Every structure is written in structure tokens, then in C-alpha cells.
Amino acid sequence: MTQYGFYFDSTRCTGCRTCEMACKDYNDLPVTYAYRRVYDYEGGDWTTGDDGTATTTAFAYHVSAACNHCAMPACVAKCPQGALEKDPDTGLVLHDDEKCIGCSTCVKSCPYEVPVVDIELMKSRKCDGCASRLAEDKRPICVEACPLRALEFGDIEELRAAHPDAVDGIAPLASPDETQPSIAILPCPAAKEPGDTTGVVANPKEVANTSEASE
Ligand code: SF4
Ligand code: SF4
Ligand code: SF4
Fold this sequence. Notes:
Blueprint: E1 4-9, H1 18-26, E2 37-43, E3 46-48, E4 54-56, E5 59-65, H2 74-78, E6 84-86, E7 93-95, H3 105-109, E8 116-118, E9 123-125, H4 131-134, H5 141-145, E10 151-155, H6 156-162, E11 183-186, E12 199-201, H7 204-207
Parallel strand pairs: 1-11
Antiparallel strand pairs: 1-10, 2-5, 2-12, 3-4, 6-7, 8-9
Bound molecules: iron/sulfur cluster (SF4) (3 copies).
Domain 4Fe-4S ferredoxin-type: 4-34, 58-89, 91-120
Keywords: 4Fe-4S, Electron transport, Iron, Iron-sulfur, Metal-binding, Repeat, Transport
Cofactor: [4Fe-4S] cluster
């Protein structure tokens, strides 16, 4: 089985949100949630030496993230309705509206806080890898939209081979150990490892998907 996934180059990303907005527009999402979100991760400090010179460990970088279409997806394992399944041809984790009862189990089980329940629809929602575009031999709209070409999509093993310095985890994303995400991330020099406690997400309200009604 081919396993599709995303490559993200954090050395290129400027945090412009074009990927997120293109996805929201394409999927006609409400203001309350997004399938792709851009985290601003920042931290560090200033110290002043005896001679009055200042040194800093300050850092800041952006992480654009969507569903990781994990090899061991907790959302699929935990859904009591079998409403989430891995596509046997692409490895994408797809959602079945007919089966979904909006119980939020997937929301709680995903370590990346990816799915969100739309209260108006009472269905969970998340990135499907732009499956309908892939069927037309098009790239996902987020990949297409990024002006810095910081996103790629394809066979994750081919992406990892093409980008040998890429890793499968970066702060503030969760550790890859639990679900084996299908992602390859090129860390920028400032990047920290998952579990890092030296920084904070500087835009917590922006990246918090809220289960509110769609508009
Ligand atoms: S990132 Fe979360 S929602 Fe996406 S496949 Fe992995 S566990 Fe499921
Ligand atoms: S692949 Fe499509 S649905 Fe997923 S984040 Fe990108 S644009 Fe959104
Ligand atoms: S569009 Fe590209 S550069 Fe802009 S936030 Fe998204 S991944 Fe980063």
C-alpha cells in the first residue's frame, strides 16, 4: 500500500497562513476551525553579562500542520462507529459522514488535536488529504497555495528519501511514537524536539479548533 503524507520545510515557512486559508476556502470551513493550522512556537531568554553585553537564546519558528494520516491512527482505533478508516490505496485516513455520530472520541484520541466536531452538523471534520483533488491528479490545495513551496505531498517514503534530513516530529507537535505520523519535517536551525518545554505556542487561540456551529 502506498502511504501518502506531507513534507514540511520549516526552514522555508514564513508563517503566512496561505496554506490554512486556501484549505478553509476550498473546504468552505467556518471561522471556528481549520483543517490546517499554523503554530507559532517561540521561547528563550536574554541574559546580561558582567561586561554589560546581552546574549539571547530567543527563538521563533512556524509549524504548518494538518492531519498526519498516521500509520497507526488513534482516531481510527478508537472510533466506536468505524467512521474513520485508512484508504487501502493511499493510506489516507478518511471519514464517513453516514457512520459518524459526533461523539468526539476521535477528537480526544488524536495526539495532534486534529479532528473537530462541527456542532451544527454533529459530525467530526478533518483534512482528507484533498482526496477529491488527488482523484483528478491535482495536489492538495494547501501544497498548491504555499508561496514558499514549503509543503509537498506524496508517497511518504519517497518524500523521506528525497529529504534525508527530515524528521517525523518537531515541537510543538506531539511525539511521533504513539501514532507514527506520515510526515517528514525539515527542522529549521531553531527547531526543538517534540516535548520541548523551553518554548510556548504564541497563538493558542488561533490554533484551538472549537466545536462550534458552522456558519
Ligand atoms: S493526525 Fe490524528 S486525526 Fe490524523 S490520522 Fe493521526 S491520529 Fe488520526
Ligand atoms: S490536504 Fe486539503 S484538506 Fe488537508 S490541509 Fe491541505 S488543503 Fe486542507
Ligand atoms: S503557506 Fe507555506 S509559508 Fe505560508 S504558513 Fe503555510 S507552509 Fe508556511
